[in-house]
Amino acid sequence: MSKSAQDPSRRRFLKGAAAAGGAATFAVGYADPLAKMAKGITGSAGEKPRHNIHGNSLTPEYRVDLDTGELTLTPGQRVAFTICYGCTTRCGVRVRVDDTLGEVLRVSGNPYHPLSADDHLPMRTPVADALRSVSAYGEQGQINRSTACARGNAMMSQITNPFRVDNCLKRVGERGSRQWQKISFEQLIEEICEGGDLFNEGHVDGLRDIRDHDTLIDPDNPEYGPKANQLMVMEATDYGRSDLLKRFTLNAFATRNYGHHGAYCGLAFRMGSGAVMNNIVTNAHVKPDIQNARFIMYIGCAPSQAGNPFKRQGRLIAQARAAGTLEYVVVDPALNAATSHAADNNRWVPIRPGTDSAFAMAIIQWLLDNQGYASDFLALPGQAAANAAGETTHSNATHLVIDTYEHPRRGYFLRASDLGLAEADNDADSPMVVANGELALSEEVMTAELFAERPVELADGTTVTVKSSLTLLSESAHEYDLDTYAEHCGIPKATIIELASRYASHGRKAAVNCHGGMMSGNGFYADY
Questions:
Q1: Which of the listed residues 77, 189, 259, 323 has the most CB atoms within 10 Å of its CB?
Q2: Other CB atoms closer than 10 Å to residue 288's CB: what's the count?
Q3: Is 191 left (phi over 0), alpha (psi -120 to 50) or beta?
Q4: Crossing angle of helices 493-505/356-369, nearest 10°?
Q5: Element (H or E) spanning 454, and its range?
Q6: pLDDT for the residue numbered 2
Q7: Residue 305 contacts residue 299 (beta carbons within 8 Å)
Q8: What DSSP element (H or E) covers 48?
Q9: Model pTM score
């Protein structure tokens, strides 16, 4: 036994030394917060806080007489109803501004905006009534709360943050060295246009030299185009400048390399959803119907934190969770507050990053093998059948696809024109299905076979093999077994089966949301 273990006084000394050292480290690391705490408690230079309860908090935005509803505005302040651009959701906010200092004092919810209030006010509602609606008058503010998220509140720092970038910066060290120098806007423009040895790393062509529409970048690869294509202009999303940037990039400078909303953000998700909904132009996508859903699988998407409008979704999830109507699972590499801070009806399933597609195929395989799909709906081959069944739309699950490898139209739907029954590309050129054992036009039958495979002779005399879409999906899903999918995803096979079973048990009140988790090279396919 060591001497320190034998000697109680020595142990007490070591404990005290460790505590003192920890306290000293804490004091150094938190010197600034401690100073602010002391100021809040004792005041600065003997000054006491303005109020013994709420200290130096802001003067109220306005006052409402709780008996009469009379509204009294605070002198020297004004309220602006606007939209936040802390993210691309663009929720409505109301901003309180100090007229004397011209400073933003606070960001709150905009009761006129559907993403900020449960039941937003009509735009014709007078402002005075809108302000009453978010007050304690008649308990309106509690009944229909209008909120701004933490990110919306933090947007004030874009104006006042001392570390915000408010000058043109030029790198003066090696890449990654974080060495920057402030330069004038005029110098920035000149160096971008004229080029030169800008970084002490050799000559860099400026825009003047690059703007050459006659000389090819690489004569051996003419598809690269002229030297002007060596300029690439990128932006993350539309902050009101996209039209100007496109006009400069594509028209004035005439380079084809303009990068906008990419897979690194949400475009992969939107394109995958757009492909599902046959609207790749506007990238149409859907959200889960949280109010009516009973089971939601969030794949790579933290509910209330990702997949805008996350504030609105967060409110709906909280309401459904409080009412006990919703169970959800988060399949994501990272644990997030939406599951760790929730008491029940939720679960976190960690997954290996980038394996969402394998997880989806495993779920699909189990659903197909265990009749865990809406067969009545999937069997509706056209809009006429959907209308008769009272459905909004139909599915292409029964549509036949040409699957002969050497045929030039392999992977395309078998259409009436392939059989000489209609002219190509007109309204009558509908996909073909199998109904009652025979080939039929999808718009002329009310139901069709989900799993079909057969040879078909085309109008040109060639014979091809055709399969229904659901048959091809089943073949793809069964390319690997569940054990292989489970190993690839890092999710136990039993867990995959359990999730698929619970998903199927809720029928059409089950939903999947992957908005926010598809920011990867295969995000399009994972979402689709």
A1: 77
A2: 24
A3: alpha
A4: 60
A5: strand 453-457
A6: 43
A7: no
A8: none
A9: 0.75
